[in-house]
Specification:
By secondary structure, the chain is of the alpha/beta class. It contains eleven helices and ten strands. Helix 3 packs parallel to helix 4 and helix 5 packs across helix 7. The structure holds S-adenosylmethionine, 6-(5-methyl-2-OXO-imidazolidin-4-yl)-hexanoic acid (DTB) and iron/sulfur cluster. The site of S-adenosylmethionine (SAM) has 17 residues, from loops.
Length: about 325
């Protein structure tokens, strides 16, 4: 498709501007987001990212949404770091199923300079050698650790803001919002692309959602990927009894992310298992152009639609899995 990008991205959004976008009549909002989406992207292409939990549970953090925090009594089984060969076998299957990105997640607070990190480095090298975009989400990183991951061939690092700065302490007490910003800066400076978004349905207000999106949209370079997760309610966590996220809240959040960060991939992340195909179609119309699949019909520890089901949905909607890996970040972003 001929690229028709005439504008550059904006990085000076006010919260009021975002709120005005978010609160528009729904159909106006979706129309605007769909228009921006078509200006910047092939709207029939959806990036498929395969997610694998390489280390599960037993995390020392207290994120109130997460089933992997050691302190909550959940049904999740702790699994120490998987062997490199097992992870590479999963990556190879992901590639066969049409995925262009492979994301390895670990339930760590932060990366430590130990043999587990050495193994992650080997996994990154191995997955990169298969021609897949390699992504990791391992918790906080130092500048040196980010550089080491970059040298091993890491393409993207996922580190979500999760919620607004104002609401952060209500959800997580074992780290600060600023810690998240710091790691994102280390990733950016190391030359790794940034994947950062958040969760809705934690009990936050619309103003918190806007504040989180404003932090992302006012970064000097927008995150190349923005995952929007609906809370996956895990029994045993403090947020287990929260109400299900309303689909229109997902659509509004996705549309606002699309309009304010037009060059980014907006990923419809956790929560799809509780959405119908029609509801997911609204999210794609609102500018989502990426999703997570997992071979075992899970995200990390919660259920997710299976790959076959997803492929059928894309076919029903006339959408195609993106075949090319993105070599560079968008030149006009920043
Ligand atoms: N431990 C690392 C960290 O927190 O950055 C990496 C893995 S963590 C599971 C990655 C992201 O998954 C979190 O930042 C959060 O946004 C999302 N997440 C975790 N549990 C979730 C849940 N129950 N529902 C929706 N998103 C969730
Ligand atoms: C992201 O934003 N969503 C993914 C990925 N990054 C690592 C994780 C979602 C986790 C959902 C709940 C679970 O299965 O643990
Ligand atoms: Fe640990 Fe990440 Fe879960 Fe928080 S979200 S408890 S840091 S695995």
């Amino acid at each position: 498709m001929e690229q028709t990008k005439k504008q550059t991205t904006r990085h000076d959004w006010t919260k009021q501007q975002l709120l005005d976008i978010y609160n528009q009549p729904l159909l106006e909002l979706v129309y605007q987001a769909a228009s921006v989406h078509r200006e910047w992207h092939d709207a029939d292409q959806v990036q498929i990212s395969t997610l694998l939990s390489v280390k599960t549970g037993g995390c020392p953090e207290d994120c109130s949404y997460c089933g992997q925090a050691a302190r909550y009594h959940t049904d999740i089984k702790v699994q120490s770091l998987l062997p490199t060969q097992t992870v590479l076998a999963h990556a190879s299957k992901a590639k066969e199923s049409g995925s262009t990105r492979f994301c390895m997640a670990a339930a760590w607070r932060e990366v430590r300079n130990n043999s587990d990190f050495d193994r992650i480095i080997d996994m990154v090298k191995g997955v990169n050698a298969m021609g897949l975009e390699v992504c990791c989400t391992l918790g906080m990183l130092s500048k040196e650790q980010a550089e080491r991951l970059q040298e091993a061939g890491l393409y993207a690092y996922n580190h979500n803001l999760d919620t607004s700065e104002e609401f952060y302490d209500e959800i997580i007490s074992t780290r600060k919002f600023d810690n998240r910003i710091q790691t994102i800066e280390h990733v950016r400076k190391a030359g790794i692309t940034v994947c950062s978004g958040g969760i809705i349905g934690l009990g936050e207000t619309v103003s918190d959602r806007i504040s989180m999106l404003a932090t992302l949209a006012n970064m000097p370079i927008h995150p190349e990927s923005v995952p929007i997760n609906a809370l996956a309610r895990v029994a045993g966590t403090p947020l287990a009894d929260m109400p299900k996220v309303a689909v229109w809240d997902m659509v509004r959040t996705i549309a606002t992310a699309r309009i304010t960060m037009p060059s980014s991939m907006v990923r419809l992340s956790a929560g799809r298992i509780e959405m119908t195909e029609q509801e997911q179609a609204w999210c794609f119309m609102a500018g989502a152009n990426s999703l997570f699949t997992g071979e075992q019909q899970t995200l990390l520890v919660t259920p997710n639609p299976g790959v076959d089901e997803d492929m059928q949905m894309l076919q029903n909607l006339g959408l195609k899995p993106m075949t090319q890996r993105k070599e560079t970040a968008c030149a006009s972003n920043g």
